[in-house]
Amino acid sequence: MAAVTAGMVKELREMTGAGMMDCKKALAETDGDMDKAVEFLREKGLAAASKKAGRIAAEGIVTTVVSEDGKSAAIVEVNSETDFVAKNAQFQGYVADVAAQVLGSQANDMEAFLAETWAKDSSLTVAQALSSQIAVIGENMNIRRFEKIVTGGVVVDYIHGGGRIGVLIEADAEVVNDTVKEALKNIAMQIAALTPKYVKRDEIPQEFIDHEMEILKVQAKNENPDKPDNILEKMIAGRLNKELKEFCLVDQAYVKDGDLTVGKYLEQVSKEAGGKVEVKKFVRFETGEGLEKKEENFAEEVARQMQ
Description:
This protein is an alpha+beta fold. Helices cover about 45% and strands about 15% of the residues. A hairpin with a 4-residue loop joins strand 4 and strand 5. Helix 1 packs across helix 2 and helix 2 crosses helix 3. InterPro entries: EF-Ts_dimer_sf (IPR036402), Transl_elong_EFTs/EF1B (IPR001816), Transl_elong_EFTs/EF1B_dimer (IPR014039), Transl_elong_Ts_CS (IPR018101), UBA-like_sf (IPR009060).
């Protein structure tokens, strides 16, 4: 029997896009014959993703899941190549399964997560289950990112636009009732719409504030070259304050009542609920943010497939 080298495994992996352990097994089963190893992987449905691996998956959906007790939650983004597949019931069902896997997972990074046993079929890893879905659906797919929250307080989720944006919001709440849950859902909608970066001011890194100050100084001097420095400093402070309000959730104007900030709205809710409610953390995923979308001519695509 031929010895299987790391170089052979690497070559087969690059040829097929299959997982490292699957490639090693395929080579062992076929006595190191590269062509037969490719056939072995194809027969197992593990090389079906190979020709699709170079295609950009920038569509897809974000899905959330919250445990029954509201103490833990997961959010995941899974990408596909086309919006058509993102709306497919089978794809959406698979993404819901991925979210459920995250909720039960102890993985801290994508590599560990993909190596886990797939909860719906213990004969597969998460990575193998993904390859299997790619084979069935016929498009490149990618589990792009996930996050899990476990809390002593409460977590509420919100999905916007059929999975285009997903939000998890964690709060400390002395009382958890329908009033509190509705308020947190309202704030999650605010996060989806206005994209704050931080919960409150003291979370903002000093280097970020310093950088913004430098930009605003140059801006103010260019616009008002004749104004004295003490006046410019007041202008810069005012502009910085306005900017930071947009970045911080509790300082933002509450979208359902412009007379209130989100912080003041939470104070009202705390009085109504009979106990203090404080937002601790939020996670906001928007499908495809930061990914390049590949523009292709549809007629050319069809012509290529016909050839």
